[in-house]
Design brief:
495 residues, mainly alpha, four-stranded antiparallel sheet, disordered C terminus, MFS, membrane, Major facilitator superfamily (MFS) profile domain-containing protein, MFS_dom, transmembrane helix
Length: 495
């Protein structure tokens, strides 16, 4: 095992320190930035929770919106599914735009803009008298606004958290589950009482409140200074083979990801459930998602659990359950599936940005997340319309859910390739951020680590073990500087 590590800080002359300061000014201060892993970060986490409540909560209620659109316009299911499918896909498509603008202008400004764009899209949707205008107003405009709100809130968590990133992401994504729990019955009640037009106007008012969450997104040190070296779509990141496989696996899964969210409500109605009973399924998925995001978020921060393998297990479980639900004849069994799917989806949604950071490292995480979600938008668009068209042909949803299971298994199989990804040349140097410019490429044995801890007054929990992701192991350490502040460093080992 080869280990790339830096040696202990060396004493420097005044001229050397001055030169180093100038060099840091030219290259940007990100090498000295250390996520606080707490403090104001928890307030930021709360703000991200509210953003997820408003954006993902409404997206995950696509089944209720879809059912109301069918009732309002009496259109074909395949055609109607394009409205909610476009909205979700546009949210992903503009991910790179949102993350890049956040790097340049700050997450706060971008999320405020997103709140008003999404509100404008919903307000314009209230004046649609046919289905076609909703492709633009709801599908594109609301999708753009929600993207400008969601993805800067995900990226800013990676700037405030590192050691507790999985937990913070899980807490933020709990807002999506709570939002789904609230939005489904809320939309169904409003639509039944006031009609779809008034419902869209009320939803527009709710979405505009996103700007309050944006006020908590206080910029961290060096957030703007990094922009000059970033591109909106830095496709050079695909030189990382692990990242390329990760993107391919998730894109395959995106082909069927939205099928349960969009079609499960109508599936239950076809199996004899009332309209009010079917709308409650989004609530069961939301409750499961809340548990899943919190439980998996806490578990995946523990060193003995492998995040990638947990993600694979989640996808395999989704595949099996989505196939078995076709056998359900009673409403209660469909509720069980909705709850189980919610738990699994909560874990999956939490792990996507976390594993992405594990694969590409902290310096490239903003670009990697933006590019990932942007590419995922294209296959995500296709799933619900295909499932709707299959129903229009067969008059049954069984084929749609069997297809969901089969495609998810294929995604899981592709993800297994990450365990055999060869080490990328120079990757170990690229991903390490250290305060010292010196490095030692010799293997670091037990005695070396003991000596290093003593020389740097290392403050660490010895029970922490390596986190393995593919062929990479990350060793967490804390080093104490002379001023008593702890700086988090990552020592990368490659098998």
């Amino acid at each position: 095992m080869t280990v790339m590590a830096t040696g202990p800080p060396e004493s420097k002359s005044a001229d050397s320190v001055a030169n180093d300061d100038k060099e840091r000014g030219r290259n940007g201060p990100e090498q000295r930035h250390t996520p606080p892993d707490g403090g104001w970060g928890w307030v930021v986490c709360l703000g991200a929770l509210v953003v997820n409540f408003l954006t993902i909560g409404q997206q995950n209620s696509a089944g209720v919106v879809y059912s109301e659109l069918l009732w309002e316009y009496s259109t074909q299911r395949g055609e109607t599914a394009w409205v909610v499918s476009l909205a979700s896909s546009m949210m992903y498509l503009f991910a790179a735009v949102g993350t890049t603008l956040a790097e340049r202008y700050g997450s706060r400004v971008v999320v405020i803009a997103g709140s008003f764009v999404s509100a404008a899209g919903l307000f314009a949707s209230s004046f649609a008298t046919t289905l076609q205008p909703l492709f633009v107003t709801y599908g594109v405009i609301w999708g753009l606004g929600s993207s400008l709100g969601l993805f800067p809130s995900l990226v800013i968590l990676t700037k405030y958290f590192r050691r507790r990133l999985a937990l913070a992401s899980g807490m933020a994504l709990a807002g999506a589950a709570i939002g789904t729990l609230a939005y489904g019955p809320f939309i169904q009640t409003l639509s039944s009482k006031y009609g779809l037009a008034v419902t869209f106007r009320i939803l527009a008012g709710v979405q505009s409140l996103m700007f309050l969450s944006a006020l908590t997104f206080r910029p961290v040190e060096s957030e703007k200074a990094q922009f000059n070296r970033k591109k909106m779509c830095d496709f050079a990141i695909f030189r990382n083979r692990g990242y390329a496989i990760w993107v391919a696996a998730l894109c395959i899964f995106m082909l069927v990801f939205l099928v349960p969210f969009v079609h499960l409500v109508r599936f239950a109605e076809d199996r004899g459930a009332s309209k009010s009973q079917a709308s409650l399924l989004t609530g069961y998925m939301a409750g499961g998602g809340l548990l899943g995001s919190l439980i998996f978020g806490a578990v995946c921060d523990l060193p003995k659990f492998n995040r990638l393998k947990i993600c694979q297990l989640i996808l395999l479980s989704i595949a099996i359950s989505s196939s078995v639900v076709t056998l359900a004849k009673k409403y209660e069994w469909i509720c069980v599936y909705a709850s189980a799917f919610g738990v699994l989806d909560g874990g999956y949604e939490m792990l996507v940005p976390v594993i992405t950071r594990d694969i590409v490292g902290p310096r490239k995480v903003s670009s990697a997340i933006g590019v990932l979600y942007c590419i995922m938008a294209f296959p995500k668009t296709l799933g619900p319309p295909i499932a709707g068209s299959l129903y229009d042909t067969t008059k049954d949803y069984s084929a749609s859910f069997f297809l969901t299971g089969a495609v998810t298994i294929l995604s899981t199989a592709v993800m297994f390739l990450l365990n055999w990804v060869p080490r990328a040349k120079g990757h170990e140097v690229e991903e390490i951020t250290m305060p010292s410019s010196t490095s030692d490429t010799s293997p670091l044995n037990k005695d070396d680590r003991k000596s290093l801890r003593q020389s740097l007054s290392l403050a660490t929990a010895d029970s922490l073990q390596a986190q393995q992701h593919g062929s990479t192991l990350w060793f967490p350490y804390y080093f104490v500087e002379s001023n008593g502040e702890c700086i988090y460093l990552e020592k990368l080992s490659v098998v």
